[in-house]
Amino acid sequence: MRFNVAAKYDVIVIGSGISGLICALELAKRNKTVCVLTKEAVTEGSSLYAQGGIAVPLSEGDSAEKHLLDTIKAGSGLTDINVAREIVAHSVSGLESLISYGIKFDSSLQDKIHLTKEAAHSVSRVCHVGGDASGKYITKVLVDRACREPNISISQGTFALALLTDKKESIIGVLIEDVTREHYALLANDIVIASGGAGQIFENTTNPKVCTGDGIVMSYQAGAALQDLEMIQFHPTVLFDNGDPFLITEAVRGEGGRLKNIKGEYFANQYHELGELAPRDVLSRAIFFELEKTNSKHVLLDITNFSEDYFKFRFPSVYQTCLDRRVELFKTGIPVSPAAHYFIGGIKCDLSGAANIEHLWCVGECASNGFHGANRLASNSLLECMVAPHFLVSKLLEDFKPNPNNITYFEIDLDPKEYNDSIIFRIASDLKKNNSSALGLIRTKSVLSQHLNYLNSLFESLSPDKLSLNCQVQELKNMVTLSFLICQAALKREHSLGVHYRQDFLNLPDECKHLVSCKNTELYWLSQTFLTPVTANTK
Ligand SMILES: Cc1cc2nc3c(=O)[nH]c(=O)nc-3n(C[C@H](O)[C@H](O)[C@H](O)COP(=O)(O)OP(=O)(O)OC[C@H]3O[C@@H](n4cnc5c(N)ncnc54)[C@H](O)[C@@H]3O)c2cc1C
Predict the structure, then answer these.
(1) Could you tell which of 186, 210, 218 is best to mutate to test the pocket of ligand 1, judged by most ligand atoms within 8 Å of the CB?
(2) Which pLDDT score, from 0 to 100, does residue 536 have?
(3) Whether residue 2 lies in the annotated active site
(4) Which helix (H) or strand (E) segment is 319 a member of?
(5) How much distance in Å is there from the Cα of 109 to the middle of ligand 1?
(6) In sequence order, which residues have a C-beta less than 8 Å from that of residue 396 and are 6 or more positions away?
(7) Which ligand 1 atom is the nearest neighbour of the CA of 471?
(8) Domains located in the chain, CATH noted
(9) 194 lines ligand 1 (CB under 6 A)
(10) Angstrom distance (rounded) from CA 8 to CA 153
(11) Cβ of residue 440 lying under 6 Å from some atom of ligand 1
(12) What is the pLDDT of residues 395-443, one digit of tens each?
């Protein structure tokens, strides 16, 4: 089918989360024309829901070196130490840049930025805004700035369907469906994927509906290498009730909240010396084992160390959500269980976000530069979203060569099949349920192998390699492709490391290596030469 080219920009950014917006603003400042594509409202994305804040080593007893060591320790040996060193070293300048946009971080009585403690950090170093509503306030300020910037045009309700390449296979544009359901192509000199994670492939996730891994899959389909897809982080404390999963920020535990099972037994210290502040992978598994042991669906977060007035002031969103959902938080404790939270793997890139294809860049949660290793340290994601765009923009501008393409249309083969809405809905909910059993916290060869067969059968019925113009169908195809690639990688990694826990291979690897997935190529290992594997001290 023929798709006309409707416009041309210097740069197209796919995604309007914190990473995409900072990229767009920094590019616009340097006189580049930028189009930001976003499939729902401009504010929608994981960024909006971030609670705890951003890790920055600001206190007197802290340093970039200490922050780096905590990052490496949490990352279990898979961290790219050079990338991590650069990101942490630029955290203060990244924060200053955010402040210059007009973001006011919560301060303590001495008018210094207030820092809280979160899991696996050796000191308090998490800056926050609006108590526990950091993402909401930061997103709002960035959106206001981007809307007032003449070099930026924001296309809301616009779904990026596929990346478009020229004859030399470099990326030159994007095929989209806009808010009026028109389909056309946009050209750009460079494309930045900032499309966030993929928590929606699971039944229980902290991620909003837009997180279906589209940008990761469209990059793969265009020839980009993906990395460490099996590394998926589960957040230990997500409010368990019949409503949408709601994350209870780690700062609640950082400031003294304790976990007990439904028999009233405090258990965290039995699994790790840091107890409630153990790395997320360890604590999520500890909760999983307690749920099995007590045959229950949740444990309880005991917050009786706080006065109600202080809790309400410090964690207003958690407090209000619990009240709205009739949780008697000071009487019973908050019922919590783990849920899929953060996509550690993604599009393989270097510190600047450059992928392995010309003119393709990635930033934020969809990017895999090795910063988070095999387990992300709390509040290091927003740190990456705040700092990495600056590296990306510098390199993109350094390499910038105007694209001479004068293409006026593209011919694209489409999936001729029509899919019924109710079938799509059923396949999607089965997929999420099955992914939760097979690709969740605890994995085994037999379950993964069965799951791969199931995903293979979906491949036959859905043809995910063929593009569909129906966004709902294309989202499902993206989720099926990504689930398949994750399953393949989880099977291949026959050891346990960080968030990847194989009950049949509890051993650590001899050497930490990244696992790379490329289209039409066997999965392959890439040496990570800097570190030796470490276990997160599970008792
Ligand atoms: C509940 C919650 C709490 C969190 N708390 C913290 C915290 O306190 N500290 C921390 O460091 N991290 C936290 N995280 C993680 C962090 O918020 C995210 O990793 C980060 O915000 C991701 O930002 P991003 O810019 O990469 O993507 P997102 O903010 O997820 O944005 C992705 C964007 O891509 C768009 N998009 C996706 N697909 C398409 C498509 N096909 N076409 C067009 N647009 C598309 C979406 O609409 C969206 O605009 C939290 C995450 C969640 C879910």
Answers:
(1) 210
(2) 45
(3) no
(4) helix 316-324
(5) 31
(6) 11, 27, 190, 192, 352, 361
(7) 41
(8) 2-231+344-409 (3.50.50.60), 237-338 (3.90.700.10), 415-506 (1.20.58.100)
(9) yes
(10) 12
(11) no
(12) 999 998 887 778 999 999 999 999 999 999 999 999 999 999 999 999 9
pLDDT digits (tens, 9 = 90+) for 69-115: 999 999 999 999 999 999 999 999 999 999 999 999 999 877 799 99
Structure tokens at 89: 């070293």
Nearest CA, atom 21, ligand 1: 47
Rounded-to-integer distance, Cα 235 and Cα 508, Å:
22
Pair of tokens at residue 50: 């971030």
> Does residue 435's CB lie within 6 angstroms of at least one atom of ligand 1?
no
* 328, 329, 333, 338 alpha-carbon torsion, rounded to 10°: 110
Secondary structure (3-state) at 339: strand
C-alpha 345/C-alpha 231 separation (Å) is: 6
116 phi and psi angles, rounded to 5 deg: -115, 170
Helix (H) or strand (E) holding 310: helix 308-314
13, 36 contact by CB (below 8 A): yes
Using the predicted structure, report yes or no on whether residue 175 has a pLDDT greater than 90.
yes
Q: Ligand 1 within 6 A of 47 CB?
A: yes
Q: What secondary structure does DSSP assign to 387-447, as a single string? A: HHHHHHHHHHHHH---------EEE--B------HHHHHHHHHHHHHHHHHHSSSSB-HHH
Tokens of 27: 């590019």
Q: What is the pLDDT of residue 531?
A: 53
Residue 269: CB partners within 8 Å, gap ≥ 6? 275
Residue partners of 121: CB distance under 8 A and separation at least 6? 55, 67, 70, 254, 377, 378, 379
